[in-house]
Each structure stands twice: as structure tokens, then as C-alpha cells.
What we know:
Layout: E1 8-22, E2 37-50, E3 53-66, E4 69-85, H1 89-118, H2 131-149
Antiparallel strand pairs: 1-4, 2-3, 3-4
Helix pairs in contact: 1-2
Amino acid sequence: xxxxxxxxxxxxxxxxxxxxxxxxxxxxxxxxxxxxxxxxxxxxxxxxxxxxxxxxxxxxxxxxxxxxxxxxxxxxxxxxxxxxxxxxxxxxxxxxxxxxxxxxxxxxxxxxxxxxxxxxxxxxxxxxxxxxxxxxxxxxxxxxxxxxxxxxxxxxx
Length: 157
């Protein structure tokens, strides 16, 4: 019989939360022979839905341009609901920032490539990501911001 205090980390669901495609300069831009510049922005969000349940969203924004004209813009948000219980508080944030996005991200990669291909373009393959390095970088930036925001203490005797 399982103890109620056993640690729990389970995927409840992975789903495509949001997706959009824009081709504002079609069809004229499709006749261009020049290779477009590709810009990819990624983000991770985590929020508690109810006690012990968290939604993690990994977002990708892919913009391709020729000169100053957009060829296409894809925005996709892949999400997952995770049950996380009886895990020490200091371990929950790394799970939300590293383990959960690593599970969700491959689905996002596939959906972005599929959307772009279905729009009639060569697929855009999002690179593999090291979510641990991203998380550690974010934590270092937060620590620097907190240190910068702390008032200097003047000791007088």
C-alpha cells in the first residue's frame, strides 16, 4: 500500500495550448528568391493550477523576414499539466524549470515544424535545448537583480 507522503511526479496531460501562423506579405513575398533571415524566441512559464498540479508552457516565436518584410510568423505554446507532490520545496522550482520543459519541448518542436510545413515552407527545426543551463542562467540573473535592488547598509557607531 502506497504511503500518502511518497513523492509524486507525473505527467497528467501534454497539449498544444495555442498556435498561430501569419503570412502578411503573401503571395508577393513567395516569389522572392532571397533566403529569409530566421529569428527564434523561446520562453518557459510555470503556474500552479491547484494544489500539487502545475501547468508548464514552452513558447516559440519564429519570425522569418526578407529585408524588412515578414515571410511568415509562427507562434506556438505547448503546455503540460504535471502533478508534483511531497517533494521538498527547494527541488520543486528546478523540476518546473528543467524537467517539465524538457518533457514538453519535443512536442513543441514537432508542432512548429508541422505548422511551417503545412503553410508551404521548408520545416523549421527548433534546436535541442539545455533547460538546465537556461534555468541556471535565469537563477543567476535573478540573484544579480536582487543584489542590485538591495539597499546598501550603512553602519554607524
